[in-house]
Design brief:
heterodimer; A: 381 residues; alpha+beta; 8-stranded antiparallel sheet; two-stranded antiparallel sheet; 10 strands; B: 415 residues
């Protein structure tokens, strides 16, 4: 839980050894990197809004992690966190994002026309297509740190921006704290409604404070473009539809994002972005594009092939159950999405999904016919 | 002894040493008199109070009842000397709107000074929660002289076990919602050091949560001693589970009748208990153990947080005063089915809980019966209330067994 900025100097009365957390049983990126020396170096710093290293790491101290799943174990409280606590974030980013160096530059490409193909994924196998990302609004602190006043200001600005959209993006905002029962039921049935975070990874970082104040869901009338306001990030933007036209999903995603961004920029609150980290979000794992583009696809035979995980790895894809992260697959249907976020562009990441899924569906069809797929196994992308 | 702490606490300790007896000393109150506690540096804000004021329209807790926009505006840019703010103190009440039938307190203290700096909000909450106790004008009596307790030996055909618990905070160190890791570790060191000095029937051992073996853990579970990481959002939203299980642990005597929890919801929770109905002995051990621990920490220059107006100072305003809950597990198969049961308990100033503790249901007809009050009455008075009340309940049960009628006792509530 983030403390008021007056608490920070008080802690400096105690010695480093007395304050340094016990990370001996921990297994997350933060614990791997945060030595006592580094903690000692960073603990008298704070960002202009008063976020300290203890605020950054609290979630990682409280959640030691799992022997097989490596969580990040830290969050940013504002844009400046990534600068002020560079010594901590840089090695974590390198480890999490495939060796990404502090001097590397990230390419942003939201020109959907640069995507090749993607409109013909076989709907007999690909049940639905979806692209999501997050956006942070410059000039405000992030969900682990922001006050009620700030969160409400973010909501107000976001609603203004979203409700000014027209055409295919004309839609409605549903604030969590005043939606009717009927509205709530409809949003649940559409699989749009997000709930108060229960994961301790999020609650220990202070992201659920004051729930549901300042939180809400906006979606267009077509129910194909959806924005979450003030959940784990300022904005989570989702484009989706049934079947396999990923190209159309990505087009709407890019066009919608650009429209929204223009409106925010007019209010002098563009999105947080820089050359090195791309789009700046709360969790370091979402830096870069913050993009997860994926499909729900039926691969009952391929998924039981001994090389399935290896194929995914080479295609730079990851699998999840159809309930999302940390769920199991049901009936051979998997959520397949890009594994990368930072160091490659939006177009490149969606291209990997399009090409990879296309290949895997071909392999599935071959296996159905009883043929071997050994010659189709791809090289590492 | 950490020298950082020595320097910081010098002034507070020198005042504390003047009030060794711990009761009724004006000099101890001087440092904490409201006018003399200077608030810490003002909180840096970007938004006006009106933009920050929480939406409490669907809330039902004591904080929501008393935090008007005017009170919020007055207090929102203040902080205690250690930097604890109003927003932090009320966070748990904002995040947990409450229940239409159960009124929670909805705020906590991050340190002793919270009760002074935010008195404009806490004083009316204390008054509402503690039966009209006005801490601006009244004083709280502390009395740990167990020899004053009359009777206190229950009929063991009805009373299965007896227990008294309270909490104690170490003056000069922040409370669980606000403490840093260093402060929490210092609480552990100070208390474990003191407990190591206990002897005879109080001699015992400390089990740190970070270092206990699987075998020790299983034994503590079997003894029903082990406390777990808080899951109640009332506690987690207040920040009390941070850094778990660092500096948390359980101490108990070899006889398993005196138990201390360290750094759970309070710095310490002290429990005296035993099977059967000898509440007198339980209370005697409770008072003796507490006094011994207090003496031991005072030898090292520490003391408990205590003031004339609030008694023993704990994290939750509901535990101020004595912080004492004295209770029994008692079997009342007939009385518990009588429609007058709740009224009888009410008039006796007692409350019922299930045998799993707060928010549990009774199993069969065995209830946890304990005192309702905490502040404004002394430990001796409250335990006497439980003794007299439980004896009355047992008499009612016996009357019903014999087919006789029972009477609802007059209300003892002062108006």
């Amino acid at each position: 839980m983030p403390f008021g900025n007056t608490h920070n100097n008080f802690k400096l009365n105690f010695k480093v050894e007395e304050e340094y957390p016990d990370l001996t049983k921990h297994n997350n990126h933060m614990a791997k990197v945060l030595t006592k020396e580094m903690y000692g170096k960073l603990r008298d710093k704070q960002t202009p809004s008063g976020f300290t290293v203890d605020d950054v790491i609290q979630t990682g101290v409280d959640n030691p992690g799992h022997p097989f799943i490596m969580t990040v174990g830290c969050v940013a409280g504002d844009e400046e966190s990534y600068e002020v606590f560079k010594d901590l974030f840089d090695p974590i980013i390198k480890d999490r994002h495939g060796g990404y160096k502090p001097t590397d530059k990230h390419a942003t490409d939201l020109n959907f026309e640069n995507l090749k193909g993607g409109d013909d994924l076989d709907p007999n196998y690909v049940l639905s297509s979806r692209v999501r990302t997050g956006r942070s609004i410059k000039g405000y602190t992030l969900p682990p740190h922001n006050s009620r006043g700030e969160r409400r200001a973010i909501e107000k600005l976001s609603v203004e921006a979203l409700t000014s959209l027209d055409g295919e993006f004309k839609g409605t905002y549903y604030p969590l704290k005043s939606m009717t029962d009927a509205e709530q039921d409809q949003l649940i049935n559409d699989h749009f409604l997000f709930d108060k975070p229960v994961s301790p990874l999020l609650t220990c970082a202070g992201m659920a404070r004051d729930w549901p104040d300042g939180r809400g869901i906006w979606h267009n009338d077509d129910k194909s473009f959806l924005v979450w306001v003030n959940e784990e990030d300022h904005l989570r933007v989702i484009s989706m539809q049934k079947a396999g036209n990923m190209r159309e999903v990505f087009r709407r995603f890019c066009v919608g994002l650009k429209r929204i961004e223009e409106i925010f920029q007019k209010h002098n609150h563009g999105f947080m972005w820089n050359e090195h980290l791309g789009y700046v979000l709360t969790c370091p794992s979402n830096l870069g594009t913050g993009l997860r583009g994926g499909v729900h696809v039926k691969l009952p035979k391929l998924s039981t092939h001994p090389k399935f995980d290896e194929i995914l790895k080479r295609l730079r894809l990851q699998k999840r159950g159809t309930g999302g992260v940390d769920t199991a697959s049901v009936g051979g249907v998997f959520d397949i999405s890009n594994a990368d976020r930072l160091g490659s562009s939006e177009v490149a990441q969606v291209q990997l999904v399009v090409d990879g899924v296309k290949l895997m569906v071909e392999m599935e069809k071959k296996l159905e016919k009883g043929e071997s797929v050994d010659k189709m196994i791809p090289a590492q992308k | 002894m950490a020298s950082n702490f020595s320097r910081m606490l010098w002034s507070k300790r020198s005042v504390g040493l003047l009030s060794l007896a711990g009761a009724g000393s004006l000099t101890a109150a001087v440092l904490l008199h409201r006018d003399r506690v200077s608030a810490g540096a003002p909180v840096r804000r970007s938004y006006p109070a009106s933009a920050e004021y929480p939406d409490l329209r669907k809330h039902n807790n004591c904080m929501a009842s008393h935090l008007t926009p005017a009170v919020y505006a007055k207090l929102c840019d203040k902080a205690t000397p250690n930097g604890y703010t109003l927003d932090q103190a009320i966070q748990t009440g904002v995040d947990n709107p409450g229940h239409p039938f159960i009124k929670t307190v909805g705020m906590v203290a991050g340190d002793e000074e919270t009760y002074e700096v935010f008195a404009d909000l806490l004083d009316p909450i204390i008054k509402e929660r503690h039966n009209g106790y006005d801490c601006r004008t009244m004083t709280h009596p502390t009395d740990l002289d167990s020899s004053k307790l009359h009777s206190g030996l229950f009929d063991e055909r009805y009373v299965l076990s007896s227990r008294v618990r309270t909490g104690r905070s170490i003056r000069g160190l922040s409370l669980p919602p606000a403490c840093t890791r260093a402060e929490r570790r210092e609480v552990e060191r100070v208390v474990v050091d003191a407990l190591a000095g206990l002897s005879a029937d109080l001699a015992g051992k400390y089990y740190s949560l970070t270092q206990m073996t699987d075998k020790e853990q299983q034994q503590l579970i079997d003894d029903h001693f082990l406390f777990d990481k808080p899951v109640s959002p009332l506690l987690t939203c207040a920040g009390m589970a941070r850094d778990w299980p660092d500096a948390r642990g359980i101490w108990h005597n070899n006889e398993k009748t005196f138990l201390v929890w360290i750094n759970e919801e309070d710095h310490t929770r002290v429990i005296s208990m035993e099977k059967g109905g000898n509440m007198k002995r339980v209370f005697e051990r409770f008072c003796r153990g507490l006094k011994e621990v207090e003496r031991m920490i005072q030898e090292k220059g520490w003391e408990f947080m205590w003031s004339e107006r609030l008694g023993y100072i704990l994290t939750c305003p509901s535990n101020l005063g004595t912080g004492l809950r004295a209770g029994v597990h008692v079997n009342l198969p007939r009385l518990s089915k009588d429609p007058r049961f709740s009224k009888i308990l009410d008039n006796l100033r007692l409350q019922k809980r299930g045998t799993g503790g707060v928010d549990t249901a009774a199993v069969g007809s065995t209830f946890d019966i304990s005192n309702l009050d905490r502040l404004g009455l002394s430990e001796v008075q409250l335990v006497q209330t439980v003794v007299d009340g439980v004896n009355y309940l047992i008499e009612c049960e016996k009357k019903l067994e014999r087919g006789q009628d029972i009477k609802v006792p007059p209300s003892t509530k002062a108006n």
